[in-house]
Amino acid sequence: MKYLFTVILLAFFSNVVIAQKTIQGTITNKDTGEPLEQVSIYFPQLEKGTVTKEDGTYEISNLPTGSFKIVLSYLGFQTYSQTLELNNELTQFSLGLIPSAIEMEEVIVSTPFHKLQRENVMKVEQTTITELKKAGAINLSDGITNIPGVESVSTGVGIGKPVIRGLSSNRVLTYTQGIRLENQQFGDEHGLGISDAGIESVEVIKGPASLLYGSDALGGVLYLNPEKFAVPNDTEGDINLNYFSNTAGISGNGGFKTSSEKLKFLARIGGNSHVDYKTGNGERVTNSRFNDFDFKSGLGFQGTNFNSELRYNLNTTKLGIPEEIGEQSKNREAIEPFQDITSHIVSSKTNYYFKNSSLQIILGYTKNNRKEFEEHDHGQVDVVSEAESQNEEEAPALDMELETLSYNFQYSLPKLGAVETIVGVQGMNQTNSNFGEEILIPDATTKDIGVLATSHIHFNKSDLQLGIRYDRRALDGDVNGVLGEENYIAALDRNFNSFNLAAGYKIDFTKSFTTRINLASGFRAPNLAELTSNGSHEGANRFEIGNPDLTNERNIQTDISLEYKNEHFEFFVNGFYNSISDYIYLEPNGEFIDQDAIFLYLQQDARLYGMEAGIHIHPHPLDWLHLESNYSAVRGKLEEGADLPLIPANNWTNTLRFTFESNKNYFKNSYGFLTLRSFFEQDKVSDFETPTPSYNLFNIGLGTTLSISNQDINLKLSANNVFDENYVSHLSRLKSDGISNIGRNINLGISIPI
Questions:
Q1: Max Cα-Cα span within the chain
Q2: What's the CA gap between 271 and 324, in Å, rounded?
Q3: How many CB atoms are located within 10 Å of the residue 649 CB?
Q4: What is the DSSP string of 238-307?
Q5: Within the chain, how many helices (H) and strands (E) appear?
Q6: Is the CB of residue 25 less than 8 Å from the CB of residue 57?
Q7: Domains, the chain
């Protein structure tokens, strides 16, 4: 740690003595020689860039000395990346981009070396929020289910949490603003808890990512990239509105951002309001309504040898917890039982650039206050007491406050030939406090620290990545209740540690054909609920009993990926085998307390295996036409042979999509799609689940950019579950109550850049 602080001090002094560099040039269409306007020129390591002017020229100044990757991207052209040496006061770099029907690539941020996907050793799925919203997603949890291998455990339409290759809850780590999102994610009915407003793109690491992120990344990572600042000397704004027919849902947000050469600022405010959703048979699911408010802001400074940004997110949400199909209404205010959640997320990220190395420091603070209000039978009361009770705010049954301080120091060592190496220290200090009538998990502190080293070695036609990490977690929980009485929780003092390794190899057999092989280990320390629970979990309708003797979950996953891509045809297949030691799971023991079934936390070795495969055809000369198809399958079993719970059904998605680009008419950048999602019967179920029959969902959509007097207006219209299929997802927590998923839902959206 002393070494890291010494490096920081040296960075401030180096900021004074290192000369500023400038790069400029012209970007054209390689086939026609015409200049290209609005091409993105970006240095991912420096997090700095610009766009080309009308004549195709650009200039970026205040750059440090050193070797940095530059990425050029523009819709309809191949994304270009190259490492440049910035040693002269002025560097000239001009390029002709090659036209291509393949969608442009983005830099992958969730992996340490910030490369394009085709350069990455680890396969990472990436998509923009714009693309997810085009498909009519109500929220982020709904939208990510369009990514192959990713599903969501849902409680109605307002509550959802990601499932990656059959693993969910604390086995999937969510990152936002560069820090881990901690919001009591142990609960089945605790949703993702973040708004898609102000999120630019989503990256999904499938498989163990403990090397990069430590405990809780055993099953994968959902990495949310925040909205970028405006390019230097530019000001932007936009207003976005959406209407959803099924839930009479209203969603809107507006943003503003401005940047000078050095200072950057952005802010976005938004909200959602939905009534109870309607199933395919026309019934509304009582109390599935939800409302939220979201505010995000950011302040940045761009120096020559360092940059820094500070971001803040406030989110307040009221979520009804549906239990039955009862009163049919379009009320928007949640009734009991419901959750009232407030989250504050503050993060800072600072990069220091030396001549041949760099240091990144990310600090974070999150405060999550989760309240749950339950139904009460007040019986007969007199008029006076009833009037008095209306003037008093009812206390929540559950009131938990979780505060987390996190840190992440990563130092990129000077490059040795073809070897790039990063070393780092990560950790968090976390406190959980209870203020309600009920206690699910005790007042406790959690302390994490991990050290890591990873290297990327580039050969002529292949790449090798290696890594090692050590983690230690300490849990200290307070005693709750009286020994021998119901809901007693003993004091907790446990320590967990783990070494993890990762190795990956990528080889380009040809320019179009690539193979990736990754072998990685991961771990997850048991959470407080699994160790200490001893009471009714109202949101889950069960009595949970923890096990203080639980040990680490550990896994080893082998992942093989084959990809072929040329200008008009793409194909991929990913296969994986995931072996998990001491898998923690819940199982009923057949007994009941106050009508709640008793569930025990147990451990047993498990394995998961499966695949994702897909093709994408955009035939010449019909470059506007796209035929896409992907298939996902996963199977999970315990060592003794029983099937794991909450394993997604195999599914097959087929899409016919068209895109038209024009800059000369009133209508430009138009698109449309027809999608058929087929979910197969899930009869490989655990002992306390029931099989789920197959079903098909047909979705359609179209959109365009309307240009009136130089003002662009983006319009979109989509319809999901067009034929109003009455179905139940295997991952719906309402399945045991016989409640169906959402029926036909039409989404109308408008976005106006200002």
A1: 85
A2: 26
A3: 23
A4: EEEEEEETTTTEEEEEEEEEEE-SSEEEEEEEEEEEE---BBTTS-B-BT--EEEEEEEEEEEEE-SSEE
A5: 6, 39
A6: yes
A7: 2-107 (2.60.40.1120), 131-377+390-753 (2.40.170.20)
User: Which class for 115: exposed (0-12), middle (13-18), buried (19 or more C-beta within 10 A)?
Assistant: buried
Task: Supply the DSSP symbol for 415.
Answer: P
pLDDT in tens, 107-165: 888 888 888 888 889 889 899 999 989 988 898 889 999 999 999 999 999 999 899 99
Lookup result for tokens 């369009």? 146
State how far the alpha carbon of 286 is from the alpha carbons of 126, 132, 294, 438, 478, in Å. Answer: 35, 27, 25, 25, 38
pLDDT in tens, 231-246: 888 999 999 999 999 9
Is 210 exposed, middle or buried (CB count within 10 Å of its CB: 0-12, 13-18, 19+)? buried
Percent of the chain with pLDDT over 90: 62
337 cis-preceded (ω within 30 degrees of 0): yes
Q: Collapsing DSSP states into helix, strand and coil, what is residue 114?
A: coil
pLDDT class of 540 with cuts at 50, 70, 90: low
- Vertex 602: Cα angle to 600 and 604 (nearest 5): 155
Spatial neighbors of 477 by CB under 8 A, at least 6 apart, are 441, 442, 443, 444, 489, 491, 492, 493, 528, 531, 532
Give the number of residues written for the chain. 754
Residues 107/42, Cβ–Cβ less than 8 Å: yes
In the predicted model, what is the mean pLDDT of the chain? 89
Q: What is the 3-state secondary structure (H, E, C) of 62-92?
A: EECCEEEEEEEECCCECCEEEEEEECCCEEE
Distance between CA atoms of residues 667 and 191, nearest Å: 39
The model carries a pTM of 0.91
